[in-house]
Write a structure and sequence with these properties.
There is one protein chain. The chain contains 4 helices and 5 strands. It is α/β, with parallel strands linked by helices and about 150 residues long. A 5-stranded parallel β-sheet has the order 3-2-1-4-5, with helices on both faces. Helix 3 links the parallel strand 4 and strand 5. Helix 2 packs parallel to helix 3. The longest helix is centred in the N-terminal third of the chain and has 15 residues.
Length: about 150
């Protein structure tokens, strides 16, 4: 049977954004359909909206909660998660589907590594925010680079 590998390392806790809500809903729907799933989350306390099910296996990479200490420390925390995620790369069965639920680089690189180790697996990558919101006041050059 198909095994679904969900990558949501860059989730921020309770499902508040569209991408996180989509991730939680997909995981819950696949559970109801009976699919075996592995879920990779970044910090302790994430995925609280995911319904417990016998066919789910949850991996939390960092056992501490993400504290809001500013942009720089948040970036360092995600870089730490990214480095620790290398220890979670493994082979799955040949009928696996890897789903990265974010366009953040720790999610995408981890999913790409999983795909590299599992060449027969299918990889589905979600990108829920094509352009950063205007409230971030980002340089247009950075927006173009980010979207590339």
């Amino acid at each position: 049977m198909v095994e679904i590998v969900n990558v949501g390392i860059c989730s921020s806790g309770k499902a508040t954004s569209g991408g996180e809500k989509c991730m939680v809903e997909l995981i819950n729907q696949f559970s109801r359909l009976g699919y075996k799933q592995e879920i990779y989350l970044g910090f302790e306390g994430e995925g609280r909206d995911i319904l417990p099910h016998s066919n789910l296996r949850l991996h939390v990479i960092e056992r501490r909660k993400l504290k809001n200490r500013g942009k720089f420390f948040t970036l360092l925390a995600y870089f730490n998660i990214f480095l620790k995620s290398f220890f979670y790369v493994k082979k799955f069965n040949s009928e696996s589907v890897i789903i990265s639920h974010s366009d953040a680089w720790p999610d995408v690189v981890f999913a790409a590594l999983l795909k590299r180790f599992n060449r027969e697996a299918q990889w589905i990558a979600f990108n829920h925010m094509l352009l950063p919101e205007s409230k971030y006041q980002t340089n247009p050059l950075l927006i173009r680079l980010y979207n590339y």
